[in-house]
């Protein structure tokens, strides 16, 4: 509460001019960007960022690092292919798109809840191990199940609906669709972090024993957090399958799961904007590193860039930005972040304080 | 001095203004291969194939300079599409060469339909349906596909080797399905058997084959093995260790140089194994020998294999086709590549492995090689050429409509009861 009042007092009308600039830029972006930049460098990081946002929410506010967020998103993508229409000739039950989407998102949320129920009694590295095991198991399951998931080939020819005369995979409409959904979840997470539930979750993260002593159900808090994270990741999964037009086991493989973790960590887990920064950096490198250097070495560049970010700024790009800001506007910014750091200091999973 | 400087400045300015016209004197070509992940080594050999074809013409075709821009995927369809989209939409390539792997090809074909003004030419992806069912009008495949590669092997196994019943061991995805189909179709038509419950499908990257080896039936004459790279080496060495006695029949990348040249203990098992494919290492034809010599000259000691793999060969043929067609249309792509695609469709040319032309769905008709593993004079294992099957088409010479009735490739097609 304290911070919100401060914030609104600092700027005219309570709006940060930098934030306003970002909003204007994001909305105007397709007007000057090429189709490629709108679709693959614009919409795609928004989708990856949204999936990573669900991880940031679990890890940053709940102290639970789940590797299985990509699995949840991929599950939603598979449901869209299975219940909707595809061109492969396996499943494709032809349900109307709105029903498919609702079932896909709820199904993903249920899977996430299930993962939460299994892993919520563990802490730190054990949560990572369990969720990793689930991610790997799901990957092998979809790869070897032919009746429902069509094995290695997966599904192709999955179309987004044509609505209001707009084909939603055209770059500009698709960009705005992903932007709207990403923005919605961004603000939802921001709002949620200050809600009773969000504060409770942070308390659980900081000291579960004390919270339990207060009579709050720690386990339930964590599982509900997984449910919300499942809704975020599931919605992003629907967007992902519309983006690709196809889904195959590669999308829920360990590589992708780690990519999401990298995006969240490189972006920074302290605030919900972090995963989006991480996703933009990730997609830019993925697309353009090969132009910078010998094509046999470009993955080294990607790795090095991320290594440097994490090395020089343990809390990711977000931390880098804050440090710069505090250099530029020393007194005020320092006071501001000082207050914040004290208030919601994030302990990485398994920090001594909790052991 | 000043005057000269002024003039050159002016010239620079004129050049800068005129640069769009200059830009049209170069043609951008995209090359997509798997430079990361499990197929990174084959992917690099694919790029070598593109470079060989470009090197031959000194990066000039139809009077224009060719600029090669490479992209990388990790063998997953989604990554292939992202890399293709970047090359086409961001770098503005007018001709795309690639991708490498079967399921990637299916994805790129679908993408090609949304970019009618760009010409897509395959790399080495060899799934059947990339061209057989719902083909894209601007997707060409001068490197044949997995079922064609098996030409002659089914007949050879039945008639010469006198095998009547085989077990099947293959990786579980579209390319091995296509290969198994290509082998079994003629084999079973002649009367051979391959019961569905004696077909073993393993995931790519499988390391332990002991359970498969234990489950292999005793009452078969041979095992047809369609595994690639490390998977093939793992199975072959474990089979030899287990004292397996059954003769083997190999897929196109099961007993190629990448496997035979490995350090695994596979010698006893693989000698005498027949196989078939689009290339044969030891074919003593001057065209092939010149190709191998050129490959060695360019890449020996720079990471190249002892002899070009079928990936270098496939990418080479496809790039070569693009260059020949560009020559025909004098590098004119101003009509969105319409003339180029017409030239490609009617192209017929001599490749290092014989005559190549296209069918109505833009899939190649080419010669295939039947080979058998033997011990070479220096003790190395090599593939001896037993026979060449001339001008194999995708439909095995059957009419298109008839061939479609065979059904799409899968784990159970053909049933072979």
Describe this structure in words.
The complex is a heterodimer of chains A (355) and B (417). Chain A has 355 residues and is mainly α. Chain A is built from 15 helices and 2 strands. In chain A, strands 1-2 form a two-stranded antiparallel ribbon. The longest helix of chain A is centred in the first third of the chain and has 28 residues. In chain A, 46% of the residues are buried. The N terminus and C terminus of chain A are likely disordered. Chain B has 417 residues and is an alpha/beta fold. Chain B has 15 helices and 15 strands. In chain B, strand 14 and strand 15 form a beta hairpin. In chain B, helix 3 packs across helix 4, helix 6 crosses helix 7 and helix 13 crosses helix 14. The longest helix of chain B has 22 residues. The interface between A and B is medium-sized, with 33 and 30 residues.
Oligomer: heterodimer
The general outline of chain B is globular
Strand coverage percent of chain B: 15-25%
CATH architecture of the largest domain in chain B: 3-Layer(aba) Sandwich
Helices and strands in order:
The complex is a heterodimer of chains A (355) and B (417).
Chain A: H1 2-10, H2 17-32, H3 35-62, H4 69-83, H5 97-119, H6 125-144, E1 162-163, E2 166-167, H7 171-194, H8 196-206, H9 208-213, H10 218-244, H11 254-267, H12 274-292, H13 298-312, H14 316-328, H15 330-343
Antiparallel strand pairs in A: 1-2
Helix pairs in contact in A: 3-7, 3-10, 3-11, 3-12, 4-5, 4-10, 5-10, 7-8, 7-10, 8-10, 11-12, 12-13, 14-15
Chain B: H1 2-23, E1 26-33, H2 40-56, E2 60-61, E3 64-72, H3 77-90, E4 95-97, H4 102-112, E5 119-121, E6 139-140, H5 146-149, H6 153-160, E7 166-171, H7 174-189, E8 199-202, H8 210-215, E9 222-226, H9 229-241, E10 248-250, H10 257-260, H11 267-270, E11 274-277, H12 286-299, H13 310-328, H14 338-345, E12 348-351, E13 354-358, E14 364-375, E15 381-392, H15 400-404
Parallel strand pairs in B: 1-3, 1-4, 4-5, 5-6, 7-8, 7-9, 9-10
Antiparallel strand pairs in B: 2-3, 11-14, 12-13, 13-14, 14-15
């Amino acid at each position: 509460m304290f911070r919100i009042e401060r914030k609104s007092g600092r700027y005219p009308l309570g709006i940060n001019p930098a934030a306003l600039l970002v909003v204007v830029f994001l909305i105007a972006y397709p007007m000057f960007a090429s189709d490629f930049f709108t679709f693959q460098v614009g919409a795609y990081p928004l989708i990856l960022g949204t999936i990573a946002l669900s991880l940031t929410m679990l890890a940053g506010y709940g102290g639970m690092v789940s590797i299985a967020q990509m699995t949840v998103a991929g599950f939603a993508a598979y449901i869209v292919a299975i219940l909707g229409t595809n061109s492969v000739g396996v499943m494709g039950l032809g349900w109307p798109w709105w029903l498919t989407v609702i079932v896909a998102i709820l199904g993903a949320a249920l899977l996430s809840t299930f993962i939460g129920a299994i892993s919520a009694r563990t802490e730190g590295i054990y949560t990572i191990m369990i969720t990793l095991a689930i991610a790997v198991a799901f990957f092998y399951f979809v790869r070897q199940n032919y009746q429902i998931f069509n094995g290695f080939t997966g599904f192709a020819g999955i179309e987004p609906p044509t609505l209001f005369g707009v084909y939603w995979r055209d770059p500009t409409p698709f960009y705005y669709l992903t932007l709207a959904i990403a923005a919605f979840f961004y603000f939802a997470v921001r709002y949620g972090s200050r809600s009773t539930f969000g504060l409770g979750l942070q308390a659980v993260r900081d000291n579960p024993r004390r919270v339990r002593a207060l009579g709050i159900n720690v386990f339930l808090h964590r599982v509900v957090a997984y449910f919300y994270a499942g809704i975020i990741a599931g919605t992003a999964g629907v967007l992902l399958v519309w983006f690709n037009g196809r889904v195959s086991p590669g999308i829920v493989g360990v590589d992708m799961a780690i990519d999401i973790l990298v995006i969240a960590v490189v972006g920074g887990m302290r605030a919900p904007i972090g995963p989006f920064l991480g996703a933009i950096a990730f997609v830019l490198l993925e697309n353009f590193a090969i132009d910078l250097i010998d094509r046999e070495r470009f993955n080294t560049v990607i790795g090095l860039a991320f290594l440097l970010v994490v090395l020089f700024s343990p809390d990711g790009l977000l931390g880098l930005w804050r440090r710069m800001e505090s250099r530029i506007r020393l007194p005020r910014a320092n006071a501001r972040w000082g207050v914040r750091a004290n208030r919601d200091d994030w302990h990485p999973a398994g920090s001594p304080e909790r052991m | 001095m000043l005057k000269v400087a002024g003039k050159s400045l002016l010239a620079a300015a004129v050049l800068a203004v005129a640069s769009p016209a200059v830009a049209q004197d170069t043609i951008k070509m995209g090359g997509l291969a798997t430079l990361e992940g499990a197929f990174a080594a084959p992917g690099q050999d694919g790029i070598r194939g593109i470079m060989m074809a470009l090197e031959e013409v000194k990066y000039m075709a139809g009077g224009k300079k060719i600029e090669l821009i490479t992209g990388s995927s990790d063998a997953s369809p989604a990554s292939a599409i992202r890399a293709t989209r970047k090359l086409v939409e961001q770098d503005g390539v007018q001709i795309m060469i690639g991708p490498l792997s079967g399921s990637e090809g299916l994805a790129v074909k679908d993408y090609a339909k949304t970019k009618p003004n760009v010409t897509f030419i395959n790399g080495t992806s060899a799934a059947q349906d990339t061209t057989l069912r719902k083909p894209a009008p601007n997707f060409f495949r001068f490197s044949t596909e997995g079922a064609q590669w098996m030409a002659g092997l089914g007949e050879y196994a039945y008639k010469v080797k006198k095998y009547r019943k085989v077990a099947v061991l293959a990786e579980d995805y579209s390319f091995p399905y296509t290969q198994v189909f290509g082998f079994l179709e003629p084999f079973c038509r002649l009367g051979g058997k391959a019961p569905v419950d004696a077909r073993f499908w393993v995931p790519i990257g499988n390391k332990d084959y002991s359970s498969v080896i234990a489950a292999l039936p005793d009452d078969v004459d041979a095992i047809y093995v369609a595994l690639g790279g490390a998977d093939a080496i793992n199975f072959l060495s474990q089979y030899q260790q287990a004292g397996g006695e059954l003769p083997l029949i190999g897929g196109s990348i099961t007993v190629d140089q990448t496997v035979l040249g490995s350090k695994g203990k596979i010698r006893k098992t693989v000698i005498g194994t027949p196989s078939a494919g689009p290339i044969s290492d030891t074919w003593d034809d001057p065209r092939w020998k010149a190709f191998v010599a050129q490959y060695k000259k360019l890449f020996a000691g720079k990471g190249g294999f002892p002899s070009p793999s079928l990936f270098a060969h496939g990418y080479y043929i496809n790039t070569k086709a693009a260059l020949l067609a560009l020559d025909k249309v004098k590098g004119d792509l101003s009509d969105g590549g319409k003339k180029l695609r017409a030239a490609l469709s009617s192209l017929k040319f001599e490749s290092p492995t014989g005559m190549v032309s296209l069918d109505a769905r833009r899939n190649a008709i080419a010669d295939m090689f039947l080979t058998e593993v033997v011990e070479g004079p220096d003790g190395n294992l090599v593939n001896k050429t037993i026979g060449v099957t001339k001008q194999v088409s995708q439909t095995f010479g059957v009419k298109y409509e008839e061939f479609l009735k065979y059904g799409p490739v899968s784990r159970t097609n053909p049933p072979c009861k």
